[in-house]
Design a protein that fits this description.
By secondary structure, the chain is an alpha/beta fold. It is built from 21 helices and 17 strands. The protein folds into 2 domains: 201 residues, Rossmann fold, CATH 3.40.50; 265 residues, Ribokinase (UDP-N-acetylmuramoyl-L-alanine:D-glutamate ligase), CATH 3.40.1190. The chain has a 10-stranded mixed beta sheet with strand order 8-17-16-15-14-13-12-9-10-11, with helices on both faces. The protein has a 7-stranded parallel beta sheet with strand order 3-2-1-4-5-6-7, with helices on one face. The protein is elongated and about 80 Å long. Belongs to the NnrE/AIBP family. In the N-terminal section; belongs to the NnrE/AIBP family.
């Protein structure tokens, strides 16, 4: 956004005019949302976010409301548009350390915006604590102060806003956790910068949604048959650990695969057979069995890992699938099997088309990408993109703010998955959904994005108290 602002100024737009529109939009939001406020308290920072605050304060003063303004840093050192805004403010301001919350206050937080990249000063942290303890409503300008706009992480301390007013577009910190929870409801206000200038600086990071896969999804056709809809194979674990793979297989069938086969070791055939009806069953014990199974060219898409156990067999099977040109969703034990041998996985699935999707949670991500996981300065999208580049496959970095990243630099953040997904077996269901979408012809990145979306929607349908079995039953196709 700093580059967008600079581009707007370079093309002749009045940068102070943009600040006026931003500050007055915040004032309008405050009057609309909290008309009962006894006093609006505007906290102004040492940069352009503070300039927005001074504009907001002047607009509120003109409306006849009671206001108080507190500054962070020396306001005489302000420069540029922020200094102009400060000079245009007709009232006085006090040092922020003097602010003591009072009943009836509404705080307008214009201290630090999305560009914050350091911990907030101690005096700001103290005010944040006071406001939080007093349960004073906060309206944040751009982003709650203390949040890193690139990562959504807290820099020492951060306000919890009831409403955030940002400009032109949301930032990653509005969507990633814990930022998403601290922003409250986010209102995006167009301050008049031409959208082409915003789009020119926008990276490939976006919010997950149907626009990402809609044009690549093939709708059902009257001439379709089960093989045209795709054949998904899910590898089963041993006889005492078959449930996870069955969850993946059922989810794959519900998500629209034409047929699903459970590839089971001999010892688990009886356990799987007694539970399976629409899902077919095949015996695959050894690498030779896998090679024979791959002689059928219709068997193109696989899920490996849920409940699989045996890391050596998992590694062997996955590499054979890769060298045979097949597509694979690698989850759970399959991911762990490639700890310290990720390069072999990347080499097996190397090629023009992306054929590999891995779906790690936090711990599995650290096992497969230890050098990336330990970078405390990188946000979740940056880590996911680095991992996808290193692997040459799509990475679904799971969590309450799941990030889907492709090796070509595209990334999406899922923001609608409910917390009920934090249950055993949920990830197994997700792997099956993604596998099914790949069988239907969606490319790996689009299949992963759509799969994460369908997974969240199924959880919303299943409601509170869901189990993984409920989740698999609630899956619907695209």
């Amino acid at each position: 956004m700093a580059r967008v602002d600079a581009a707007a100024a370079a093309t002749g737009q009045d940068s102070f005019g943009l600040m006026l529109r931003a500050g007055e939009a915040v004032a309008a939001a405050a009057l609309r949302l909290y008309p009962q406020a006894m006093r609006y308290v505007v906290l102004c920072g040492p940069g352009n976010n503070g300039g927005d605050g001074y504009v907001c304060a002047e607009a509120l003063a003109r409306s006849g409301t009671a206001i108080a303004v507190f500054h962070c840093g020396d306001p005489s050192r302000l420069s540029g548009d922020a200094a102009v805004a400060r000079a245009a403010y007709s009232g006085v301001s006090q040092d922020i350390a003097n602010y003591l919350p009072a009943d009836g206050d509404v705080v307008i937080d214009a201290l630090f915006g999305a560009g914050l990249a350091r911990d907030v000063p101690s005096e700001v942290a103290e005010v944040i604590h006071r406001v939080s303890s007093a349960r004073i409503a906060v309206i944040a300008v751009d982003l709650p102060s203390g949040l890193d706009g690139a990562t959504g992480q807290v820099r020492g301390a951060a306000f919890r806003a009831a409403r955030t007013v940002t400009f032109m577009a949301r930032k990653p910190g509005h969507v990633l956790l814990p930022g998403r929870d601290l922003c409250g409801e986010v209102e995006v206000f167009d301050i008049g910068i031409p959208w082409r200038q915003v789009a020119a600086e926008a990276g490939p990071l976006c919010v997950n949604g149907a626009a990402l896969w809609h044009d690549r999804h093939r709708a059902l056709d009257a001439a379709d048959h089960k093989y045209r809809r795709g054949h998904l194979t899910v590898f089963s674990g041993p006889d005492i650990a078959t449930g996870a793979a069955r969850l993946s297989a059922m989810a794959g069938l519900k998500a629209g695969a034409g047929l699903v086969t459970m590839a089971s070791p001999a010892a688990a055939l009886a356990a799987n057979g007694v539970h399976l009806t629409a899902i077919m069953l095949a015996r695959l014990d050894t690498a030779d069995d896998v090679e024979a199974y791959l002689q059928d060219p219709r068997r193109q898409n696989f899920v490996l890992g849920p409940g699989f156990g045996d890391p050596e067999r998992a590694c062997d099977f996955a590499l054979r699938l890769g060298h045979a040109g097949r597509c694979l969703v690698l989850d759970a034990d399959g991911i762990t099997a490639f700890r310290e041998r990720r390069d072999r996985l990347a080499a097996a699935f190397d090629g023009k088309a992306t054929r590999l999707v891995v779906t790690p949670h936090e711990g599995e991500f650290a096992r497969l990408f230890p050098e990336i996981a330990k970078d405390a300065t990188a946000g979740k999208p940056d880590k996911a993109l680095a991992a996808a580049s290193a692997l040459g496959g799509v990475v679904v970095y799971k969590g309450a703010d799941t990030v889907i990243a492709a090796p070509d630099g595209r990334a999406a953040i899922e923001e609608h998955a409910p917390p009920t997904l934090a249950t055993a077996g949920s990830g197994d269901v997700l792997a099956g959904i993604i596998g099914a979408l790949m069988t239907q012809g969606l490319p790996a990145f689009e299949a992963a994005c759509a799969g994460v979306h369908l997974h969240g929607q199924a959880a919303l349908r299943a409601g509170r108290g869901l189990t993984a079995e409920d989740l698999a039953r609630a899956v619907l196709p695209l």
